[in-house]
Specification:
alpha/beta; 15-stranded mixed beta sheet; 16 helices; 19% strand
């Protein structure tokens, strides 16, 4: 098969969601974690999932350019930069600089941004982002430990990150249809606007955005737009994947501090053991904390699944960040979760359920995952990932806020249903 559409996702969980959606539509789409393996069996669509959302700007752009070069090297005719629907990025963030690199690489006159995800309550109106009925800046997202969002004006946020002028296609124009939208885009182009943010208060707005950018070489946005882009719709449909989940023990590793993850751990703990490790203690002695966690899990896996968690309250996260610094606290958490996963994999664990975007990336890297086949399931958001290798691992990577309270328990059943 020939690669037609290349997608660059700024974290693993986001990349998995897009790939699962496409596979569910019958479009073969693997997730690769290293740009160097894109050429090992290209499919009509391929997602390269990085961890550059929170990297320093120069490092993020370097990684993005490497992924872009790999996709273009395989002949990708359409390119899509996927970031979180809530536009997770501070003023020092990488969305703008990576978009600038995409604009430069393609030579496109304009690049569009459509982060909204109306089915999940994320909408954009007059350039301002909302989470259900609240401006994002008035929601819990304002207190995100890594990417707080005090400013809901995405035009202003993006303009502070980008070297190019940023303009808006408002809902009023989108509601008039594709021709009115194209006329507005042309007017913005005459004013020198290179980056264009699209309002999206509902799926009709997203559909209009997709229609007017049908011939654009590149676009950016969230999951909803990626699912309906015309470039995806022309790809041939195929039978769903037949991969199975390997036999073996299952471990939950939770690095997310989101409220949803806390509730999911509580539901899991009603049936299976959970070890909660304080991140401050991990920072004091990483090796000792890893030994404790692996010993706890190894001693109990014979009786069934277990969980290891560094999830903390917002207050405790703030204390640790104040002591260590935001980046150092994040690095310690990722090092702990990744090392625990690698140790447990070496001892025979074949299945991981991972909560947290950065935690997911850390676990996948530590376990040596490079290319993942995605299997969507109607019982869960996204899909299960099975490694394309002689000794495959199975994973479920979950964004912190994603999923219902019983998702960890549901996944145990799904793993068994799909086991080899």
């Amino acid at each position: 098969m020939t690669l037609t559409t290349g997608i660059i996702a700024d974290d693993l969980t986001g990349g998995m969601l897009v790939a699962a959606s496409l596979v569910g539509q019958g479009i073969p789409c693997d997730v690769v974690l290293d740009p160097a393996v894109v050429d090992e069996g290209p499919q009509p669509a391929t997602v390269i999932a990085g961890r550059f959302r929170f990297l320093p700007r120069d490092e993020a752009v370097l990684w993005f350019r490497q992924a872009l070069a790999a996709l273009e090297g395989q002949g990708a005719r359409h390119l899509f930069y996927k970031y979180c629907a809530t536009f997770d990025s501070t003023d020092d963030g990488a969305i703008g600089p990576c978009a600038d690199a995409l604009l430069e690489a393609t030579g496109a006159p304009q690049l569009g941004f459509c982060p909204a995800f109306p089915p999940r309550g994320v909408t954009v109106y007059q350039g301002h982002i909302f989470l259900r009925q609240q401006l994002l800046s008035q929601s819990d997202k304002r207190f995100d430990p890594i990417t707080p969002m005090p400013d809901p004006d995405l035009v202003a946020v993006l303009q502070r990150q980008s070297a190019h002028p940023v303009g808006l296609v408002p809902h009023q124009i989108l509601s008039e249809g594709a021709e009115a939208t194209r006329t507005h885009l042309a007017a913005l182009a005459e004013e020198g606007v290179r980056h264009v943010l699209f309002d999206a208060v509902d799926e009709a707005d997203v559909a209009t955005c997709a229609a007017v950018t049908e011939t654009w070489r590149a676009m950016t946005g969230g999951d909803t737009l990626a699912e309906i882009l015309p470039a995806m719709q022309v790809l041939a449909r195929h039978a769903p994947p037949t991969a199975t989940v390997p036999d073996g023990h299952t471990v939950v590793i939770a690095g997310s501090c989101a409220g949803a993850t806390h509730g999911q751990l509580a539901a899991f703990e009603a049936h299976h053991p959970v070890l909660r490790v304080d991140l401050g203690r991990v920072a004091e002695n990483l090796g000792e904390a890893v030994d404790e966690a692996t010993s706890f899990a190894s001693a109990r896996l014979g009786d069934g699944p277990v969980a290891v968690s560094i999830a903390a309250t917002p207050e405790r996260v703030s204390e640790i960040q104040a002591s260590l610094g935001v980046r150092a606290a994040q690095d310690v958490g990722e090092a702990f979760c990744g090392t625990v996963a690698a140790r447990l994999m070496a001892s025979g664990v074949r299945r991981f359920i991972v909560a947290g975007g950065e935690t997911s990336g850390a676990v996948a890297r530590a376990c040596g995952a490079e290319r993942l086949q995605v299997m969507p399931d109607p019982r869960i958001p996204g899909g299960i990932a099975v490694e394309r290798s002689a000794a495959p691992m199975a994973y479920y990577f979950k964004a912190g806020k994603m999923g219902g309270e019983s998702i960890f328990l549901d996944l145990l059943e799904i793993f068994e249903d799909r086991r080899s």
